[in-house]
Amino acid sequence: MPDGFRLALTTFTVLPVRGPRTLTRRTAGQAVLLAPAVGLLLGLVAATVLLGLRLASPTSSEVALPAVAAIVVLALSTRGLHLDGLVDTADGLASYAPPEKARAIMKKPGVGALGVAALVLVLAVQVAALMSCIRGGHGTASLLLATVGGRLAVVMACTPRTPAASPDGLGALVAGTVPRNLPLLYAGVVALLAGLAELFDERTAPLADRFQDAGQVVVALVAGLLVARLLRAHCVRRLGGITGDVLGALLEVTTAVVLVVVSLQV
Predict the structure, then answer these.
(1) Which residue, among 48, 11, 17, 5, has the nearest Cα to 251 in the 3D structure?
(2) What does the alpha-carbon distance between residue 248 and residue 239 come to, in Å, rounded to a whole number?
């Protein structure tokens, strides 16, 4: 198994895969580029759980348990690593301290009140938005789009335009490892595939409705990545650059935004 793929699985999933023997920036860059594919894999697992619970439910109106279970599966399949990054990033940004001190706060083992609030709010938004997507008949599609979109935000954060906050840690290892224009190509491919999936969805008979659904998923992806860009710029301004925690926060926030935008359009 290539080292980049090993690192992608050990970093972005809970799978018991042995990591590469030598950790280099080249390997880290390969792992980042594979993150959207890993997101698709995790999304398929969560979507399978969602569909299984929907089929096992005695009534088709039951959406709360499948939505909660799908989000829990995503959290467990990543060891909660990205959620931990969200909490630490929220604590660091909320401190209003200088960059170096804010990063020190993020490294502390304790959790602040605002970090807990960010965790609860983001998970609540993800569950509530996914419930709405399920009711609108787009639960599986929205879940897959959100998991891939969240990892796309990580890819976009690792171009040369975004510096690392410190000379060590995951942020320093992956910052600048992704070619400048490659994330746009990635986003275009994901948007095209998601749009085509909606366009050829036989559940929506009228062609006009299919085009509308295709446009909606593209809008949701773009919205999620734009919010991630704004958050990334704020983190660079406040923290001096990206860290591993910031990447986790970008992933979780983007996932939530994609689900919300889809839910508002169904």
Answers:
(1) 11
(2) 15
Tokens representing 117? Answer: 């609030």
Cα-to-chain-centroid distance, residue 135: 22
Q: Is this structure's pTM higher than 0.90?
A: yes
Classify each residue of 192-209 as buried b or exposed e, where b means 16 or more C-beta atoms within 10 Å of its C-beta. eebbeebbebeebeeeee
Residue 104's closest CA among 165, 43, 44? 165
Instruction: Quote the CA–CA distance of 241 and 174 in Å, as a whole number.
Output: 12
One-letter amino acid for residue 108 of the chain: K
For the residues 216-239, what does the mean pLDDT come to?
A: 94
For residue 170, the tally of other CB atoms under 10 A from its CB is 18
Q: What are 10-57's pLDDT values in tens digits?
A: 888 888 888 788 888 999 999 999 999 999 999 999 999 999 998 887
Burial of 167 (0-12, 13-18, 19+ CB in 10 A): exposed
